[in-house]
Design goal:
The protein has about 375 residues and is of the alpha+beta class. Helix content is about 35%, strand content about 20%. The N and C termini lie far apart (about 50 Å). It binds manganese (II) ion (MN).
């Protein structure tokens, strides 16, 4: 049912933008439209939708089982299948008869539609003009429905459990990389989908935690340090993005002051979330707290980004973004202070805008008592 709705919404958008067809390659937009999650690698595979409501799945024969899933979507479609012996050429030619020599405008996702793909189907494209539809999909996906919010809640539950299990088993002398591996193992044991991006989990101690997107390495956990963990489970394609910074006692008082400042920035920004507010205002609220404490120049990134299938997606919680927040939008609030030589603190939560305010998706405790560890 909801997939049919998504097809209708896309169709409407295509009509408005005078796009005749879209071609969607396997990836998160393909998954959003069909629920199918697979990687055909070099084999040419896509769905093509017409603004008149016609749909075509172009698949290698080895993916025949996908048809069964597609047939439950409540959408009408034709299937074009090719096999490894003959290659996709002949079937592509057959599909091309749908628009023939007409000068059609075809929407593709420029970020995924490589020049190699374009070359592969150059003859099929014939007189077509290609247009980027990245924004069209961002627009379709930015307001999450009830099911999507539910997937995020489930991903959050798994994230919290994995984080707790790892923290409970922590001791000094363990390397960042080992902590990172333990989190991955816990997440997978709990049934999380394989993480969609390989930069997570970020586990960083001491000076390393002062680099917002650092790599986990050989540094071992010691008393007096910060331990920053940025991770998140993935459920049905929807990934949570949570960061907690732990203080390995005893720590110098400046680290506690920094922690409390980031905590306050995080809380104030979250509490400001409601429909109609501009993202740049939310960013400003977090920034004001940090600037007020004298750490402004150490908060070196935007306050947040949207979460969902793509993990970093609109809405961007950043200065200059004046597009008001709407119910269903989900994003991170992740202020941080990063001081070279001393360490960094980031506290990242995920929120969903609701009709009457916001809903906090990440529940892991973040008050200073709970994140101060005696190891
Ligand atoms: Mn993030």
């Amino acid at each position: 049912m909801r997939y049919g709705d998504r097809f209708d919404a896309l169709k409407q958008n295509m009509v408005n933008k005078k796009i005749d067809y879209v071609i969607i390659l396997p990836g998160y937009n393909f998954r959003y439209m069909t629920g199918l999650n697979y990687n055909p690698m070099e084999r040419l595979s896509f769905v093509m939708l017409g603004s008149g409501g016609d749909a075509y799945f172009f698949l290698p024969k080895v993916e025949t089982a996908r048809i069964e899933v597609l047939s439950k979507l409540n959408i009408d479609f034709d299937v074009f299948m090719w096999n490894d012996e003959t290659g996709p050429g002949k079937e592509l030619e057959n599909l091309g008869k749908v628009f023939g020599n007409r000068h059609v405008k075809i929407g593709v996702e420029f970020a995924h539609f490589t020049l190699a793909r374009k070359d592969q189907i150059a003859e099929f494209l014939n007189n077509a003009v290609l247009e980027d539809i990245t924004e069209v999909f961002h627009e379709l996906r930015v307001r999450k429905d009830k099911d999507e919010i539910r997937q995020l809640h489930e991903a959050s539950r798994l994230s919290d459990k994995a984080l707790k299990n790892v923290i409970d088993g922590l001791s000094t002398g363990i390397s960042e990389r080992e902590i990172s591996n333990r989190i991955k193992i816990e997440l997978l044991k709990l049934g999380s989908e394989a993480l969609p991006v390989d930069f997570k989990p970020i586990v960083a101690t001491a000076e390393n935690s002062a680099k917002p997107h650092t790599q986990s390495g050989e540094n071992v956990l010691k008393k007096g340090q910060t331990l920053l963990i940025d991770t998140g489970a993935c459920w049905e394609g929807y990934a949570i993005d949570i960061t907690r910074t732990f203080l390995i006692e005893p720590v110098v008082s400046e680290l506690k002051k920094i922690y409390q400042t980031v905590y306050e920035a995080n809380m104030r920004a979250i509490e400001s979330v409601r429909q109609g507010i501009e993202p740049e205002t939310v960013d400003r609220i977090a920034r004001d707290v940090i600037e007020g404490a004298g750490y402004g120049k150490f908060f070196t990134h935007r306050t947040g980004h949207g979460i969902g299938l793509e993990e970093h997606e609109p809405p961007w919680i950043v200065q200059g973004n004046k597009s008001p927040l709407d119910p269903g939008m989900t994003f991170t609030i992740e202020p941080g202070i990063y001081i070279p030589e001393l360490g960094g603190v980031r506290i990242e939560d995920n929120v969903a805008v609701t009709e009457d305010g916001y809903e906090l998706l990440t529940k892991y405790p973040k008050d200073i008592e709970n994140i101060s560890l005696e190891l």
